[in-house]
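pls design
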């Protein structure tokens, strides 16, 4: 096949491609966004399948009561005694030493190996909250394994981290969905009708945007009953994040509808007897669907950041719920900073999650803009 024919087919494919195909073609050209998308997908799947991937129930305190504040355990394949096809750990005993002011001192017995097993039965769980199971990806034939170490209660930090990622994503998803629905409804009404209704709605929108977030959450936290369960607090925080996160997208929807409502295709729909809700839903909003999707992706990390910040300062989720904000509360203690640095491992996952969302969102924003390449 000649080069000319190939170029002609490429041009035909470009001009006949749908909007989604064009966005994907431009998105694939951005290496940073593609790498971030892979990282984001790995983190989402890790959180989604956390009950299976993690060896233990993250909410059970004292899971390994003999290994409190234990350091991470990295499986080995070889040592001075030879190599093994199966990863293994050494047998570790702990005792308090006078030389270290009665802190725990570990003694490693390299002659006793404990082998890692795969697809082992352990704690019961419900995958996706629906499918019951008890098989975990890995475990130990004897004793416990803690890839990221343990906390002061003996909980496995690896298991807690995977479950915390999923919890934070759930809070972010609920907050984004609530703000998304409110933004489309309020912004759509404001932009389509205009006039005095638009002025009133914009006054309310500006009033909500000027409310400082942290004092608002402090006031709300003061009224939260202490007897509320972790699940109730979870849904309450998600709703609050959604209720204060809609004004920005609503303004963008309003601006677009003010521009598009006098276009010929909208006037044609009116002449055909279409209702305002039908015109907004079937004609106006789909005309910038790509920008709405991009806005949702970009707003996701801010929802996760809000949940993490609230839980970090004690106004959001609390134990026994595992979220990134709850886990970050422990890293502020002086004893942790000096002696238990593995508490910072969830921080790495938190930074990776937020940065992945940011890079993917920026990549989608550039891909959705047909003039982005001409401006570079």
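designed seq:
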């Amino acid at each position: 096949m000649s080069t000319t024919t190939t170029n002609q087919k490429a041009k035909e494919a470009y001009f006949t491609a749908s909007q989604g195909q064009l966005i994907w073609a431009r998105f694939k050209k951005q290496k940073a966004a593609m790498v971030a998308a892979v990282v984001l997908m790995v983190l989402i799947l890790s959180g989604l399948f956390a009950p299976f991937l993690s060896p233990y129930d993250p909410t059970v305190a004292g899971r390994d009561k003999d290994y409190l504040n234990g350091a991470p355990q990295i499986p080995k394949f070889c040592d001075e005694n030879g190599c093994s096809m199966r990863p293994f750990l050494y047998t570790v005993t702990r005792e308090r030493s006078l030389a270290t002011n009665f802190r725990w001192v570990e003694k490693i017995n390299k002659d006793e190996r404990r082998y890692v097993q795969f697809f082992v039965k352990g704690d019961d769980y419900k995958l996706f909250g629906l499918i019951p199971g008890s098989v975990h990806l890995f475990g130990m034939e004897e004793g416990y394994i803690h890839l990221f170490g343990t906390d002061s209660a003996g909980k496995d930090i690896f298991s807690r981290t995977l479950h915390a990622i999923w919890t934070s994503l759930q809070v972010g998803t609920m907050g984004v969905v609530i703000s998304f629905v409110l933004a489309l409804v309020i912004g759509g009404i404001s932009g389509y009708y205009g006039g005095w209704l638009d002025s009133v709605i914009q006054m309310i929108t500006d009033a909500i945007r000027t409310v400082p977030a942290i004092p608002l959450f402090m006031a709300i936290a003061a009224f939260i009953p202490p007897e509320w369960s972790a699940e109730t607090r979870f849904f309450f925080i998600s709703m609050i994040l959604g209720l204060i996160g809609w004004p920005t997208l609503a303004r963008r929807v309003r601006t677009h509808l003010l521009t598009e409502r006098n276009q010929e295709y909208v006037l044609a729909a009116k002449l055909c007897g279409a209702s305002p809700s039908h015109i907004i839903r079937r004609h106006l909003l789909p005309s910038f669907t790509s920008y709405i999707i991009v806005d949702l992706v970009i707003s996701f990390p801010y929802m996760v950041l809000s949940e993490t910040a609230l839980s970090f300062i004690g106004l959001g989720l609390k134990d026994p719920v595992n979220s990134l904000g709850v886990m970050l509360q422990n890293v502020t203690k002086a004893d942790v900073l000096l002696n238990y640095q593995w508490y910072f491992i969830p921080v790495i996952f938190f930074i990776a999650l937020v940065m992945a969302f940011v890079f993917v969102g920026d990549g989608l924003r550039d891909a959705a803009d047909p003039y982005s390449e001409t401006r570079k």
